[in-house]
C-alpha cells in the first residue's frame, strides 16, 4: 500500500503528522531509556570483554615475537597479518598519532588494558594515516605498535548499530501506523469535500474498525439521502415551473383581450412580469449546479458579451477592461447568470447620484502562477453603497437593503444566487464599498 505524505504546511494541524510525532516521541523516549539502561548495565562487561581481547592479542603477539627465532620472525609477522589481521610496527617519536574516540566504554576498556600491560600503554585510532585499533607495547627497551582491524573490536559493541536499526524501523512503523489511522479519515474528508462542491462521490468502503465502518456507513447513507432530495427537488421545480407559469400565461392572455384602460393593462402586465421574474429567481436559487457540466470557459469573452448586452439599455454605461483571454473551468450558463445578476443589481440599485444612469466598471485580470493562478473579476458601480455593517446581509436570501440602495422590485435573491453559484464553482466572492461611492464585487476563480 502506498501512503502519500502530506505537505509540510499541514505539519501543525494534520492528523497524520500529529499521530506520527506522538508515536515518534514515544518511540524515541522508549529507545533512549532502553539505551541508557543497556549502556549502564552492559558497559562494564563490554569494557572487560574488549580489554581481555586486546590484552590477549598483545600478550600472545609479544610472547611469539620474544621467543621466536630471529630468522623466523619475519615469517611469523607475515602469518599474523594474513591470518589474524594483526600488524606490527616499530614506534617512532615522529609518528603522527590520532587519539581514540572519547567515550565511557573506551575509557573503561583502556583503563583495564593499562592495568594489564602497563600504565605507559598508548592507544590510537590512526597512526601515520592508517586507521585501525592501535595499541603500544614494549619488548625490552624497544617500543612497538600493534594494529588490530577495527572490525575485531566492533564485534563487542555491534549492538549499538542494531539499536540504530531498531530506531529507524520503529520510526518507519510509526509512519505506517499513522498512515493507516489517517487513511479512512482522509477518504472521508475528500468525499465530504466533493459533496460540498456539488459532486456525488463514490461510496466509502465499509470495512475496518467498527468506528470507521459506522462513520462510512452513515456518510454513504447521507449521500444517498442527499441524492434523493436532489431528485425530489428537480421534480418539484419542474412542477412549480409548470403549475405557476401556466396560470400566469393565461392571465397575461386575458389581460391582453380584456377591455381595460391602457393604465390598468400596463399595471397588470407589470405585476404579472414581476411574478414571473420572482418565480425565475426561486428556480435559479434552488437549481443545483452539476460539476459534470463544467467546461473550459473564457471569462474575458463572457464578460464582453454580458457588457454588450447590458450596455444596450439606456440607463446603463459600461466600461470594461478585459484581457485577451482568461480560462476557467465552470458552467458557462451559470457564470453568465452570475455576471448578469451583478450588473442588474448595479443597474437597479447603483445609479450614480444626480444621474439617472448606472455607471458600471468591469475589470478582469489573471494573477499568480501554476497552482496559485487565479482569474479575478471586478464589477463595481458608482452608487451610494451600503453601510459597512450591512454588507454581510447582502448575500442572504430575501434581503433587500432598500433604505440604502433605493426601492426596487424583486424577491431579494439575486446576490444570493450569485453566492450560491460561485460556491459550487469553489470560487471566492468579496463585497466591499468602493472608494468614492458604490459597491465593488470581486470574484476569484481558479484559472486553467
Structure, explained:
It is a single chain. This protein is α+β, with helices and mostly antiparallel strands. It folds into three domains: 22-160, Beta-Lactamase (2-Layer Sandwich), CATH 3.30.450; 210-274; 292-446, Histidine kinase-like ATPase, C-terminal domain (Heat Shock Protein 90, 2-Layer Sandwich), CATH 3.30.565. It has eleven helices and twelve strands. The chain has helices at 15-67, 73-84, 104-117, 150-154, 159-196, 210-257, 262-286, 299-311, 332-349, 402-405, 414-424, and strands at residues 86-90, 97-98, 123-127, 130-139, 142-148, 295-298, 316-321, 327-330, 358-367, 374-381, 428-433, 439-446. The strands form three sheets. The chain has a five-stranded antiparallel β-sheet. A five-stranded mixed β-sheet has the order 7-9-10-12-11, with helices on one face. It has a two-stranded antiparallel ribbon with strand order 6-8. Strand 3 (123-127) and strand 4 (130-139) form a beta hairpin. Helix 5 packs parallel to helix 6 (210-257), helix 6 runs antiparallel to helix 7 and helix 9 (332-349) packs antiparallel against helix 11 (414-424). The chain is elongated and about 145 Å long. Keywords: ATP-binding, Cell inner membrane, Cell membrane, Kinase, Membrane, Nucleotide-binding, Phosphoprotein, Transferase, Transmembrane, Transmembrane helix, Two-component regulatory system.
Features:
448 residues; alpha+beta; Heat Shock Protein 90; 3 domains; five-stranded mixed β-sheet; 11 helices; elongated; disordered N terminus; RisS_PPD; nucleotide-binding; transmembrane; histidine kinase; two-component regulatory system
